[in-house]
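Example record used in the benchmark description.
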Amino acid sequence: MSIFLFGISHRSAPVPILERLAVTDIDRPKLIEDLLDSPQISEAMIVSTCNRVEVYAVVDAFHPALEAVGEVMGRHSGMTVNEMTKYAYVRYSEAVVEHLFSVAAGLDSMVVGEQQILGQIRSSYASADANRSAGRVLHELAQQALRVGKRVHSETGLDRAGASVVSVSLERAKSVLGGEIGSAVVFGAGAMGGLAAAHLARAGVTDLMVVNRTFEKAQHLAANVAKNHGVDARAVEMDDLTDALAGADVLVTCTGTIGTVVGVGEVHSALARRTAAGPLVICDLGLPRNVDPAAGRLPDVHIIDIEGLRGDEGTKAADADEVAARDIVLAELADYLTHQRQAEVTPTVTALRQRAAEVVQAEMLRLESRLPGLDDPQRDEVAKTVRRVVDKLLHAPTVRVKQLASTPAGDHYAEALRELFELKPGAAESVSAPEVGLEPNAAGDAAKRSSTNIADAAKRSSTNIADAAKRSSTNIADAAKRSSTNITDNGKAR
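Model output (structure tokens):
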């Protein structure tokens, strides 16, 4: 099993292409279900922001996974695979891990160092977990990616480049206005809307209006901004948007709605009754775009969108901070790969110890049939002796194979161990694989499945116990017999 990534971002595609592939919260469950319908994909997570759409998956093989993901995203976007491949990037195995760590660090963002991406990754993982599409691999990957992001923001000055796309767009808006922003409308009451409202409040806006399709959410955000920042903030009904725009300097739109939410007609009507001096600056931060681009051709209207922010000086970071952030990414990548390689050898070590335990058990049963006169203390002493011998023989190779597992060629040593002892770690994997990131009910179901797997594994293994015992320890019975004879003789001598 390997990790696979199919993505399109602001670095690889223009906004119209990103708009076609954008994934809303409503789309996400169905897309995840479609991805998991492929026999090639066992886990899936979708990260969709204003400047990227990325599908992370745990897959059996690269090419079948590429075909499966391409088919699902093609149906979603209405694009052919050939159309998407012009703009898409694909990563596999270790390259996926490095990419996600860089994304979490803010190194791949339009505004280098922005912190909002951490919340977006956390939300994407939570969605995958809720849809039961994130297993052990994606759980560990997402959790370490979040840790990378936190380290970068606490140990470097990377986030000094800019808090987010919101802050950069508002700085651009102030430049257009030639001064401070007096009155503003925020369309959208989600995470981006909250960030925009907070930035506007800190920038000294005196009149802030919040619009949202769900009026209660607009009221909640306006109340929070008023309480936390001491700004005159209020919620506005959708029907009153035109009146609100007539007196506003800036409109910030940031909804995840597919399709236009502010049309050219609404903007034209607002201009006809305009009371504010100067132009109306529209910061369209939605993906897909929330405002009809034709509105930008109206007199006294200036639109700032994701496309227009590319290459802005405010989106860049200092070289030293970027180098420090990349060093953290590489260090965390090495740590992650070491942990994964060691985890991969664990089923083999478990299978070896399970095989040894089966051999000991088989030989003890054989000993009892040959020496029925052994009492319990004698039988226990023989069993302890045999187990000590087996443990000492296995200690060095199991410790060493775990150490070697952290190297790039570590799996070769595990494979040699499997070959030498004729191990089938698949059964052991079902016993030892950790269940993580599960909800309480799911954990109970997993435990039930695990216990069934243990019983099945034991049943399968027991059919070969006699042969395994004969191959691995032909002299154990004789040694045990001599040991028990000595114990009996010593007892008589006493």
